[in-house]
Design a protein that fits this description.
- The protein is an all-beta fold.
- The chain has one domain: 6 Propeller (Neuraminidase), CATH 2.120.10.
- Helix content is 0%, strand content 49%.
- The strands form six sheets. Strands 1-24-23-22 form a four-stranded antiparallel β-sheet, with no helix packed on it.
- A hairpin with a 7-residue loop joins strand 11 and strand 12.
- It is globular and about 45 Å long.
- The relative contact order is 0.18.
Length: 296
């Protein structure tokens, strides 16, 4: 595997939500409320000195986005305690908010679209209180459903290539679970353990799935990314120079990992960087899927 390098000179407080959407890489800096983009790693137009480009800056924490189908440059965002639209000009339009599952201050967290255009997004208490988070699903008709309760920090929803399996991290517990998905309705069933992480190896944060159905997990606090086979067996470990990897995506055969500097007393030179490296033999990424919004 090739060396790990920083994609740009930027260093983020809490980079997250990396996605390959259309022809560009998008990601967020959660506490700053920033939606950011960069050309593909290795693209002719990218120079090492180039910084990330800001597409929008929101007044609330911005946890994740997905592009809206048939509306290039428009994004659905999990932000603050709800959902909003970000237009191509960077304007923000609040849409709807899910039902809180805690009395504590809370916010939305990682989210992703599935093959049917549904948007799945987690939540967490701001103080990370146990069992104060949930997983929500925003359907194309604008309905928000509470899919799972009693989570702590819901992270990395990711789907198998056929859309029939969902993977979900509960980061502080060190758990990645697997669910069966009804492709017609989005209903979940058959929850079972997929991977259990030793705390000494880090906590599973953002996830992605490659063309072969392998699951990639960013290990917050573990300075690494793990690749698991569809049966849950660890297949590959990628060591990183950033201690807090947060999300992972594949742009072709290139592995892209966001990270954060927040909470570190002595951040190193690559903490908070967007890191890139060759993903290794047989690894190819899938583009991020768009959301459908039939009523907006």
């Amino acid at each position: 595997m090739s060396d790990v390098t920083a994609l740009t000179p930027d260093r983020l407080e809490l980079g997250e939500g990396s996605r390959w959407a259309g022809d560009r890489l998008v990601l967020v800096d959660i506490p700053a409320g920033r939606l950011l983009t960069a050309p593909a790693p290795g693209a002719p137009e990218r120079r090492t000195a180039d910084a990330l480009t800001e597409l929008a800056k929101l007044p609330d924490p911005l946890a994740a986005v997905a592009e809206v189908a048939d509306r290039p440059g428009t994004w659905l965002a999990a932000t603050g305690t709800g959902f909003a639209l970000i237009t191509e000009a960077g304007a923000v339009r609040p849409l709807t908010a899910p039902e809180p599952v805690t009395d504590r201050p809370w916010r939305m967290n990682d989210g992703v679209a599935d093959r049917a255009g549904r948007f799945w997004a987690g939540s967490m208490a701001c103080d990370q209180s146990p069992r104060s988070g949930a997983l929500y699903r925003l359907d194309p008709d604008g309905t928000v459903r509470t899919v799972l309760r009693d989570l702590t920090i819901a992270n990395g929803p990711a789907f198998s290539p056929d859309g029939r399996t969902m993977y979900l991290s509960d980061t502080p517990l060190g758990h990645i679970d697997r669910f069966d998905v009804d492709p017609a309705t989005g209903e979940l069933s058959g929850r079972r353990p997929f991977a259990r992480l030793d705390p000494d190896h880090g906590a599973p944060d953002g996830l992605t799935v490659d063309t072969e159905g392998h699951v990639w997990a960013a290990l917050f606090g573990g300075a690494a990314v793990h690749r698991y086979r569809p049966d849950g067996v660890l297949d590959r470990r990628v060591t990183l120079p950033a201690r807090q990897p947060t999300s992972v995506c594949l742009v072709g055969a290139t592995l892209v990992v966001t990270s954060g500097r927040g909470g570190l007393d002595d951040p190193g030179p690559d903490d908070g960087a967007v890191l890139v490296t060759d993903a290794g033999p047989g690894a190819r990424g899938l583009p991020a899927l768009p959301v459908r919004l039939d009523t907006v």
